Amino acid sequence: MELLSKTLARVKPSPTIAVTQKAAELKAAGKDVIGLGAGEPDFDTPQNIKDAGIAAITAGKTKYTAVDGIPELKQAICAKFKRDNGLDYTPAQVSVGTGGKQILYNALMATMNPGEEVVIPAPYWVSYPDMVLLAGGTPVIAPATLENDFKLTPEALEEAITPNTKWFIFNSPSNPTGAGYSWDELKALTDVLMRHPHVWVMTDDMYEHLAYDDFKFCTPAQVEPALYDRTLTVNGVSKAYAMTGWRIGYAAGPEKLIGAMRKVQSQSTSNPCTVSQWAAVEALNGTQDYIAENNKMFTRRRNLVVDMLSEIDGIVCPKPEGAFYVYPSIAGLIGKTTPSGVTITDDEVFATALLEDTGVAVVFGAAFGLSPNFRISYATSDEALKEACTRLQQFCAALS
After folding, report:
1. Domains (ranges, CATH) in the chain?
2. HEC string of 116-182?
3. Using 50, 70 and 90 to split pLDDT, how confident is the model at 50?
4. Where is the Aminotransferase class I/classII large domain (predicted)?
C-alpha cells in the first residue's frame, strides 16, 4: 500500500513560494539577493487595523467563532459589496475563510465531480489548476496572449467551454500580468457565459483596489446582473490593506453554494483567526484613504520597472492596469548564451541563470501557464527595484 495519495501526485508545489524560499536561503547564506517573487505589499498593515486587532485581544475576543465568520464581519462584507460594486448580499450569502485561497478551494471541493472541467485563462495564478486537480476536476487552459494584452477574448472563452464545464475562473486585475478588463471587455465575456447557463463564474477580485491611471474596476455580476445567481465573487483584505499574514479572505454567492462551502470548512480549518476577523472589520468599515496613497507609490514603481525593462533589447514589457506585477516576454532572448555558457532555452533557464549570476529572483512564466515570460512583483522599494532592473539590463546586455 502506497503512503501518498494518487491525487497528490497530480499537483505540484507553488512555484512562487519556492522562488521566495530559494531567495531567502541564498540571502541567509550571505548572497546579495533581491527577491521579486513575493506577491505581497511591502507596506505595513495600517495602524487603525492593527489597533483593532490589539483591542480584540485585550477584550478577550480570542475564542472560536462561527465556522465561516463573525456576524460583524459578514455585515461589513455586505456593506463593502454594496458600496464598491453595487451588489446586494445578505450575511447568509457570505463566507469568510483563512485567506482567498481557502475560499476558492472550498468552492471547488464543494462542487467538483470527476470529469467536470474548469476554464482557466492563462497566464493564471499558479494555484488555480492545482486546486481544480485536488478537487477531482480537470483544468482547461484558455490562452490570453501578449498580442491581446494578456486578456482572454470572447472567442477563446467560447472555444474552451464544453458540456462538461462547471466553472469559469476569472481574475482582474490579474496575477501575474496585472491586466485589467474594462467594462466593455468584461461584457463581451459575460455575453458568452449567458449563452452557457450550465457554467458558473468564480471571480477572484483580490486586486480590485490596486487599479492605476484611468482603469476602472468592475466584476462580472456587476456587469451582467443576470449572472448573479451563478457567480461566486471572491475577495479579501490581504493586498489592498497589506494584511497578507492576517489570512482573511471572503466571498459572496448563492446560499446553497455558501452552505456547501461552510460544510467543507467545518471539517478542515473551522473558523478563521478570531483576532484577524475583528481587524478585517476595521479594514472594511474604517478609513480607505491610504489605498489611494499606496496606489500612487505602486504606480510610480510600475512605471519605473516598465521603463527600465523596455530599454532591454529582446524584452517586451506591457504596462499593466493594476495589481503589482509585470509579465515581460523574453522571446527575443531565446537561444542566446550567458558569459558562463548557459543557453537560454526557456524562461525557467532564464530565471535560474538570472538568480545565479545577478542575485535577482523572479518567477518563470511556465509556472503561470504562458511562456516565454517571467513575473516581477514591484511591491518593494524603489531602490531595490532600480538595482534589480539595472542588474537585469546588465545580464541581458552580456548575452550573446
Report:
1. 8-44+290-397 (3.90.1150.10), 63-285 (3.40.640.10)
2. CEEEEEECCCCHHHHHHHHCCCEEEEEECCHHHCCCCCHHHHHHHCCCCEEEEEEECCCCCCCCCCC
3. very high
4. 31-392
